[in-house]
Amino acid sequence: MSVRTSRPAPCFPVLPPLTSRQAGRLFLDDRGAATAEYAIATMAAVAFAGLLIVIMRSDEVRGILTDLVRRALTVQ
Asked: Is residue 27 a contact partner of residue 21, using CB atoms and an 8 Å limit?
């Protein structure tokens, strides 16, 4: 039985060590953060609008809204 002495090739490239100066530039820079926040808020609004569309298309909700409008427009 032979003993393997060499290490297997890494799956990922070996990165150079990160200095505190480089880390500060990478992690303290918030450029693009507002754009990402707008994108997340827009995605949440689209998801909420889709949910409302599904709810509003149901026959039960449509009947409730139609009845509400009829009662509001009826003169007594």
From this structure: no
